[in-house]
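Lab notebook: predicted structure, single chain.

Context: the supervisor wants predicted structures on file for every construct in the current expression panel, including those that have not yet been purified. This is the next one on the list. No modifications to the sequence; it matches the entry in the shared construct table.
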Amino acid sequence: MASRRVIIRFIWTATLFLAFLGIVVIARRTVVLFLPAHASNPHNPAAALDAHFLDHRALTLTHILPGLLFMFLGPLQFLPSLRAKHPTFHRWSGRIFLASAAVIGVTGLTLALRPTIGGLDEKSAILLFGSFFLFALAKALWRAMHRQFAQHREWMIRGFGVGLAIAAIRPIMGAFFAAAVIQHHTPQPQHFFGTAFWIGFLLEAIAAELWIRYTRPSAAAQFSAPRSSALSAASPP
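Prediction complete. Output recorded below exactly as produced.
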């Protein structure tokens, strides 16, 4: 029991950290897009990245701004106490979350079809996992509409996990930048962007699947309990 609490605490800490990091990344990118002259130092290794996104400013903003809702509302969807005590809030915040995710997914795939920093490697990672992201959340919605809440939870975890990968990719990119600087090389994002995307998406997808398998028995019991209680109340004494 103690080890289970430690694992759950670790997963929640990692999730909240990535969600917070995602919000920070979105905030910085938004500032750079609106105030490029003040926010991006030409000597910064990321200056080339900022210039790349400036070429698609409207589409990039449409892609990242819903991410604020995604990162903020995502963790709330998995709080059992909030779902039990405030089901109306859970349903409406879930709808907003899914609508935001749909915009993020569609615009992300659109951006991937345009020139990317990491070339074919980045494109393939985004197209594959971006499509799975939309598929997973569509399945989550379908399961919820059919009141299959245990399966709804699992598909939500898969979709949210892939969405969080966008935040997880940033430290991976940072490691590549740092490695180049330590070796006295000028960082060349086009050489490692695709690799960073593949690593981030794969790690998050694997972590989501492991978490689903680890919590499946307890989740099944949790979602069947209300139904069992209702049947017991309805049956004659």
